[in-house]
Design goal:
about 425 residues, alpha+beta, OB fold (Dihydrolipoamide Acetyltransferase, E2P), 4 domains, five-stranded antiparallel β-sheet
Length: about 425
Amino acid sequence: MDQPTATETEIQDPNTLSDTQLRSDELAAQVSDDVPSAVENINTDDMLTHQDAGELSSNTTATTPKVTKGQLVEGTITATTPTSVTVDLGEGVEGVIPGRELERMSRKMLDGLRAGEKLYVFVVNPNSKDYEGKALLSVNRALEEMDWKQAEQYRASQDVYEGHVAGYNKGGLIVRFGRLRGFVPQSQISEERRQLVESQTEGTPEDRYSKMVNDPISVKVMEVDRARNRLILSERAATREVREKRKEDLIGKLNVGQVLEGRVVSLEDFGAFVDVGGAEGLVHTTEISWKHVNHPKEALRIGETVRVEVISVDPDRKRIGLSMKRQASDPWDEVAISYSKGQLVQATITKLTKFGAFARLVDAPDIEGLIHISELSNQRVNHPREVVKEGEKLTLRVVKILVEERRLGLSLKQVNSAEYLDIDMKNYSSDGDK
């Protein structure tokens, strides 16, 4: 195929991955000797029956008068012994499942080998001299063959396959695909899973990936190479489709005001995305805490479990709005009760802007008030830095309280104002009586 080999940097965004970008030859350039063989000798717990095969056997037939090597055929068990099982393949053709094949089977599978039962078998040799010209058959190879056929179907349709992490190595994750082992190279592991691993500080990356064994995983089949026993999967390619489907399902069940537990999966400049049961909702920066948060990383870390409240659900745009701060007590309730206009307070300057300075109350650190530039001094001030500096602790006068609007007006120039002399004397007297 005259196809340029893709580099690692060419496959970056799971939301923009296309079939062209993830063709098998491109993925082959990204994986190495870390790719495990897709086929191994395993004991299978389930018989491959007519019902199990379904549409996968549409290109085979049980009435073929003569069988050929490598053919997948449905037959009927006619006799069983401790050392072999005889199968009628139709049109007078008989085959034998040998003792060495039976030794590889689980007890459950052996119990299902009864006369009259139908099953699918793989023709190893259509005319075996060891069995008087009968066909040499394999059930395990038939099971593998059906899984290869199913893998080909998933590759062609690009449907999402739901599986479980079965293992890992330094190159990526191993995922069971029926009786086969599929391989997810590190470059094709979802960003969410990689961030979760990177957020953990203890142990080696292999140690962190080992904790994912038996976890569910959604993948797409990207390469099926039976000759080389390679089955390459991509979690990244499936991520967007899976996420949208889960979100659509979840949105139909959510109600505004509902309280949920979720896990932080990513931190952006504008907020944090939280997984609340298979779908992600956004906690905007302003909804993280009652106190001012410049960036979500100041208050959250990836992988952290948080309690959130659903504040909006938009089915058309498939968006979920969440809030963390509404699950905490509102500090402005305390402001309404404990603070009054004219009161002197201690506050620390937190931020300077061209129109004034923000200050955080010492006794209520979740509350910030604004010292307007006109309230800094009786003299003309061009910029707040001429009067105050960040981190400075000052005594300030409360000149405005708007609880509903969550606004607190503070003043430096009116700290010694005669206008508030009566209030100061009253408070001084009250303090002296204590």
